[in-house]
# Entry
Amino acid sequence: MSGFDTTWLDLREPADGAARDAALLQGAVAWLARAGEAALAVDLGCGTGSTLRAVAPHAPKLRWRLVDNDPALLAEATRRLSAASDVETVQANLTDLDALDLAWIRLATASALFDLASRDFVEGLADRLVAEQAGLYAALNYDGNVAWSEAHPLDAAVVKAFNSHQRRDKGLGAALGPDAGPALVNAFAARGYDVRTASSPWALDARAVSLQRLFVAGMADAVAETGEITTPELADWQRMRMENVERGSCRVGHLDVLALPR
Ligand SMILES: C[S@@+](CC[C@H](N)C(=O)[O-])C[C@H]1O[C@@H](n2cnc3c(N)ncnc32)[C@H](O)[C@@H]1O
# Structure
């Protein structure tokens, strides 16, 4: 997947904000506070700056570096920053991990990124963060679980096919998809970090109709590409799901990970 648009990112930001585990966020903030004022945080795959907007109110004196390969999203992030913010934006492709400037950073952050990334990327990033003795706050890693309040007979098959699509290369190697959370835990625990995790599911109801619609449409498109479900069956599933967004609810599982040097 490439080309994340602001419509999708704007729709998911309130759901992400409600889903983020508060204790892990506070753990990241406490780690930054120990670094003193003006600690440097780097947000990887920043989009329009959702992670900054979630963290900065708790850590207002931070310096930020926002990294993304999409110039339009970086421009939008810049447009949304307050004049007082100490933030630089960097256009970079994370595939070139060696070229990424992580010197003196205290914390790397990311939201909804690592399910797009490969195991090699996670391992390489872990090495780079250990070298800096920097922490990682990685929120909203999709965990492979989607459930609706009203069942459709194809739900399990659709989620299975969607999860196999999630593992396709999204530009950072064979994607971890639902394995992102465990891969992060293993990589940082193996390097002696203190690793904490918490579930951070979306709980989408009638207040998130537009997000539900885009999510269902995106799922259906991805599943269609796998060819695992026939076109008429998938169309029936999508029709039922779209009809239900206002009266039903949907839970999408995520895992937040906080990994800090001991
Ligand atoms: C699902 S979006 C999440 C954006 C943002 N973190 C948020 O929570 O709203 C994934 C982001 O990763 C960026 N991204 C994906 N692959 C990338 C790569 N190879 N290098 C740099 N950024 C990348 C995308 O442009 C997008 O902004």
Observations:
- The longest strand covers residues 135-148.
